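ESCALATION

Customer reports they have been waiting on this structure for their group meeting. Please prioritize. Original submission:
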Amino acid sequence: MTPVTAEQLVERYGDRYKWFATGTVMLGTIAMVLSATIVNVALPDIMGEFGLGQDQAQWLSTAFLASMTANMLAAAWAMARFGVRATYIAALLAFIAGSILGGFSPSDTALIVARVIQGTAAGIVQPLAMVVIFQAFPPERRGTAMGIYGVGVILAPALGPTIGGMLIDNYSWRYVFFLGPPFCLAGLVLAPTFLACNRAQKSPVFDWPGFLLLCLAIGAALTALANGQRQGWDSPLVTGSGVATVAAAVAFALRERHTASPILALEVYLNPRFLAASVVAFILGLGLYGSTYLVPQFVQTIQGYNPTESGLLLMPAGVALGIVFPLAGRLSDRLEPRGMIMFGLFLFALSSLLMARADTSTDFWVFAGWVVVGRIGLGFILPSLNSGALRVLDHALVSQGAGAINFTRQLGGALGVSLLTVALDRQTSLYANDFSALQMGQGATTDTLDALILMLGRAGVVDNIHVALHSEEAYQFLSRMMSAQASVMGFRQSFLLVAVIFFSALVPAWFMRPRRKPS
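Update from on-call: job pushed to the front of the queue and completed.
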């Protein structure tokens, strides 16, 4: 008979069990992490096929992140109610279904629904994997376990965009949705053998009203951000979504404060130092997911890279993060987390500041180097943030704080992608309007055309070039040049915004001082 409890599994497999359990849950984790970032490489092709703008295409990223953020809070209840094995298998099946729907989507709406399904599965699997690994390894070896988990989480987005880019260039963007399911199928084969199906003796209570209010608040906020630039910030849809966001958020806070089984322990935010750590976590999520959204868009739409080249650009950064992460993890046990976090924030801000200088002629390896600097910064932040945040809490609140800090980071990623998309669209539009001063008959246009005449004349072009340049085609050529330059400036301003936000995060990070030991 197949063992059904963790104790029986340990008795059967001995010391090897921890590796069997870790490998089983890591398969699902890798699939989920791949799906979180790999679609960004495919966005230009998806936008072209379905005729989407930036404000619509960003839903493919934010829908996944928002769904994952909300469902992370349901993971603990699902494991207690149905057991680890059943929960894991159900999440993998849901992810495979979402991937199939995404790969065969006939419309952008179906594609967004597929991303929501994938995000739901990811929100369950990632906390589940950490719980399984923590339970499988003894306390003195959990640092090693988290190192293994971290390497798996890091290598997936490092290699995924490159593999996805090759699939897009040689086949179609639809194939990126089929990269994760093989890992899920392997996990489905191993789960019945190596995962326990323990359930809580007493069926836990899940705060469904609070969960629905949270989903409403996040969904309404993303709707407002996604439609504000196109429909106007004072349009009925946007203002209505804004009102719904505030109302749902207030109702959620009141519900969580008065229910006996909250899904999010809000009292941890009353600790000023934990609140400061949460601000840093929110900004970290914004930068981590926002940069992985902006960089592939920039190099493909501005610099003309194909998806493979776009993926290769991100690979050195992923490798660098994989090297730095375990080293920073060891240092975080010896040094004050606040110092490492501030150093990491500075490096990421510097990376974004450097990318704000990018243009169409920026060299591949120069840009890749700038991204590497940012990922090294993340390597210093990631191991230190959770430990630094939890150190300031009373022991009774540590478990609630762990869920809260992870939720805050994921929420920063979901809202951050939307905020940066709004900033990109707005800045591009502003620069396009400024450049539109180059209109027919204006002095700036005449000066520009005269300069072109001079250059072409020196190059030996035909004598009647002056007439040709002042034709409608010449003005269309200038219009395309101005539109391209407006896009470049929009991206540069977006990278600059990320840099400013990360520099400002140094302030709350400073207040993450450790608790004073009683004398």
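Sent to customer with the following note: DSSP finds 20 helices and no strands in the chain.
Escalation resolved.
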